[in-house]
Amino acid sequence: MSRALLNTLRTTSRCTPILRHVPSSSSSSPSRILLPAAQVRWSSHSPLGSAPVNVRKPVTINTIQSLYRKNEPITMITAHDFPSAHVADHAGMDMILVGDSLAMVALGMEDTSEVLMEEMLLHCKSVARATKGAFTVGDLPMGTYEISPAQALESAIRMIKVGRVKSVKLEGGKEMASTIEKVTGAGIPVLAHIGLTPQRQNALGGFRVQGKSTSSALKLLEDAFAVQEAGAFAVVLEAVPAEVAALVTKELNIPTIGIGAGNGCSGQVLVQVDMLGNFPPGRFLPKFVKQYGNVWDETYRALSQYKNEVKSREYPAPEHTYPMPKEAFADFEKTIEEEKEKVRLQNFDLL
Ligand SMILES: Nc1nc(=O)c2c([nH]1)NC[C@@H]1CN(c3ccc(C(=O)N[C@@H](CCC(=O)O)C(=O)O)cc3)CN21
Ligand SMILES: CC(C)C(=O)C(=O)O
């Protein structure tokens, strides 16, 4: 036992039970700093974790083009942080979108109008760090691109430079053509987004299916042509009748990525937490969402079991603890008893 610890035992034990003052192995303990590098382990969610190696060629804009030419459906999913992007990338998604649905699904906001550029950038960065294979797209949040093409380009550049994504998405058709031209002209790929554009929910009168009448279907086609002409590499079609989306897809020579737009699109996108079922029971889900998992139930079950096992002292079990040679512990106990005895005698002397 070190002299310092013995001194601590001596001085503190006069007024308080000594065991409270034995330094613990908590994370704030300075001894942690002295660990040799080889012993330092990272969480499995960190970039240096022991996650399986993902060996696929990174998806580029050319890969997307080539999938489109081969008529192979393009897969896209949203992600909002390192773990959700990590798993999406490993599952082999072609594209990962940091959608502004981040506002609701990760930040608990009411709708997408509240999310700020700085918040999008933070999440884009964490997604970009996890994504080695998929092509990343960052959503330009409301208010960062509508004022002028110059404003849009400035925001798009921030997305690339700070957010570390490979392309940007913005909502709007014909009226956004000059903006899309400006951004793509600077070498930043743009994914357009037409049909139901959630950032304009107040003008649309809510989340309403678009292109249901002949005239609104024609407007959708017009918007699709306009964004294609302006240089968008693909276009999201959200909440439009399947036959309209299929026809628009046929008429275009860039890929359409459907969400609530049926099976005739060149690819599909969904919000990851929706399709994973990672939300409490009873929450409204758009009818186009297919729930492929039940992550909420599984998480709830695991957390409840953990809670119960901690309360009942079932966890941690012996296999979750670190062994120590019996003799070393016996010595440890004995030394403490001896020290306590010495202190008792000293205190007695002082009387
Ligand atoms: N979690 C989440 N997932 C999404 O897919 C999503 C969001 N949030 N927020 C932004 C938009 C809103 N989305 C929605 C929401 C509702 C419908 C919807 O189903 N609306 C009515 C349509 C009524 C009509 O016009 O016919 C419906 O009853 O189907 C569609 C898209 C899709 N987006
Ligand atoms: C659903 C997709 C297309 C989206 O825009 C988002 O997640 O914000």
From TrEMBL:
What's any one GO cellular component for it? mitochondrion
Q: Which GO terms describe its biological process?
A: pantothenate biosynthetic process
Pfam short name (any one): Pantoate_transf
Q: In which pathway does it act?
A: Cofactor biosynthesis; (R)-pantothenate biosynthesis; (R)-pantoate from 3-methyl-2-oxobutanoate: step 1/2
Supply the EC number(s): 2.1.2.11
Record key words, sorted: Pantothenate biosynthesis, Transferase
User: Which reaction(s) are listed as its catalytic activity?
Assistant: (6R)-5,10-methylene-5,6,7,8-tetrahydrofolate + 3-methyl-2-oxobutanoate + H2O = 2-dehydropantoate + (6S)-5,6,7,8-tetrahydrofolate
Q: Which Gene Ontology molecular-function terms are recorded?
A: 3-methyl-2-oxobutanoate hydroxymethyltransferase activity; magnesium ion binding
Q: Which HAMAP family match?
A: PanB
Record's family? Belongs to the PanB family.
The function of this protein is:
Catalyzes the reversible reaction in which hydroxymethyl group from 5,10-methylenetetrahydrofolate is transferred onto alpha-ketoisovalerate to form ketopantoate.
Cross-referenced NCBIfam families, in alphabetical order?
panB, PRK00311.1
Name assigned to this protein? 3-methyl-2-oxobutanoate hydroxymethyltransferase
**What species does this protein belong to?**
Decorospora gaudefroyi
